[in-house]
Amino acid sequence: MNVSGLSVDERFMRRALELATLGRGHVSPNPMVGCVITHGSGSQERIIGEGWHKRYGDWHAEVNAVNSVLPEHQQLLSEATVYVTLEPCSHWGKTPPCADLLIERHVKRVVCCNDDPNPLVSGQGFAKLRAAGIQVETGVLAEQGRLLNARFFTFFEQKRPYILLKWAETADGFIAGAGGQPVKISGDLAHRLVHRWRGEEDAILVGANTARLDNPRLNTRLWEGKDPTRVVLDRNLTLTTDLHLFDGSQPTLVYHASQTDALPDLPNVQYVVAESLYQVMSDLYQRKVQSVLVEGGAVVLNAFMEAGLWDEMRVFRSRTMLGNGVKAPTVRGIIHSREKVGDDELTSYMKP
Ligand code: AOF
Ligand code: ZN
């Protein structure tokens, strides 16, 4: 232990976790992964290489870390410890298996936060390394590792996307005006932050009322980032196709439960039958959507809560009073963080 209260392994792993976060927003559906390579032991242990998974389809963290080791230090790899936030892969995917690379370079020890939940890898990466005589330790900063890739773990373990419920409410607890009429509740900074979040998730979901009354674009125009897939719940197909959601600028999925075959033929818009929220979520899982940001309205947010289909809630509270309107959902979960965003207060809650 040193002054930070962390063991040496934990200290290097914390660095690997930091590196992993540099891939945020660019690697989905892959996990964020960071890697630190060290040489020496005890107080002499020094970093000789670092890397992270930068972009989907690109090299994995371990490859970038091995390549970052200076040519004159490459021979040190046979005495090196590799700290990698996730179990090294064992499969031929877009790139060759990372476990094979570490075996080829004869590294001495591999330390990880978590086992890879992807069935293509799960346990087989570690098995390969051990069979080659490499020391393997897993479970170092395991909780931080799971939190970092909560979307990836939820997707493989629960076979549904990670679900974030988001809304803004007034000081007196309203989410919209009377009859669901949109009112400006949170400020410009909160608005921009939401656009950043949109770029970090695979999909954004709204109900038919919100689609009709707010006519949202559900893109990330206030932040640099990819535009997520739009998801609209329109059970009885009541929405008119002149709404921004149907402009074809982003892939758009419309879930409905109507029997009709007479569906609009719009570019980039797909109609899918689903009888329940569970069916919607399992269809999104089939489409490899790892996370969904639910932006309302109240009926939809409450339905997700009632179904137990949520992982995180993010609530902006403004100082404004509305007097009447649509009541905001009741928050649940454990407070994870609280901060000021402009004049608004943002609180996030995690499912216990
Ligand atoms: C690692 N290191 O940095 C990452 C891993 O499609 P591919 O070939 O990129 O493979 C994606 C899978 O590989 C992903 O689902 C996860 O199981 C693992 N990700 N593994 O050894 C990395 N990003
Ligand atoms: Zn890999």
Automatic annotation (TrEMBL):
Keywords: Hydrolase, Metal-binding, Multifunctional enzyme, NADP, Oxidoreductase, Riboflavin biosynthesis, Zinc
Catalytic residues identified in the record: 62
EC number of the protein: 3.5.4.26, 1.1.1.193
Cofactor(s) essential for the protein: Zn(2+)
Keyword NADP appears in the UniProt entry: yes
Binding sites annotated in the UniProt record for NADP(+): 168, 210, 214, 221, 297-303
Protein's pathway: Cofactor biosynthesis; riboflavin biosynthesis; 5-amino-6-(D-ribitylamino)uracil from GTP: step 3/4; Cofactor biosynthesis; riboflavin biosynthesis; 5-amino-6-(D-ribitylamino)uracil from GTP: step 2/4
Any one GO MF annotation of this record: 5-amino-6-(5-phosphoribosylamino)uracil reductase activity
InterPro entries, alphabetized: APOBEC/CMP_deaminase_Zn-bd (IPR016192), CMP_dCMP_dom (IPR002125), Cytidine_deaminase-like (IPR016193), DHFR-like_dom_sf (IPR024072), Eubact_RibD (IPR004794), RibDG_C (IPR002734), Riboflavin_Biosynth_HTPR (IPR050765)
CDD domains cross-referenced by the UniProt entry: Riboflavin_deaminase-reductase (cd01284)
Cofactor details (free text): Binds 1 zinc ion.
Gene Ontology process terms (BP): riboflavin biosynthetic process
Limits of the CMP/dCMP-type deaminase domain: 7-137
Binding positions for Zn(2+) per the UniProt entry: 60, 89, 98
Reaction(s) this enzyme catalyzes, per UniProt: 2,5-diamino-6-hydroxy-4-(5-phosphoribosylamino)-pyrimidine + H2O + H(+) = 5-amino-6-(5-phospho-D-ribosylamino)uracil + NH4(+); 5-amino-6-(5-phospho-D-ribitylamino)uracil + NADP(+) = 5-amino-6-(5-phospho-D-ribosylamino)uracil + NADPH + H(+)
PANTHER family listed in its UniProt record: 2,5-DIAMINO-6-RIBOSYLAMINO-4(3H)-PYRIMIDINONE 5'-PHOSPHATE REDUCTASE (PTHR38011:SF7), DIHYDROFOLATE REDUCTASE FAMILY PROTEIN (AFU_ORTHOLOGUE AFUA_8G06820) (PTHR38011)
NCBIfam families tied to this protein: eubact_ribD
Function field: Converts 2,5-diamino-6-(ribosylamino)-4(3h)-pyrimidinone 5'-phosphate into 5-amino-6-(ribosylamino)-2,4(1h,3h)-pyrimidinedione 5'-phosphate.
The family this protein is said to belong to: In the N-terminal section; belongs to the cytidine and deoxycytidylate deaminase family. In the C-terminal section; belongs to the HTP reductase family.
The protein, known as: Riboflavin biosynthesis protein RibD
Organism, as annotated: Spirosoma linguale (strain ATCC 33905 / DSM 74 / LMG 10896 / Claus 1)
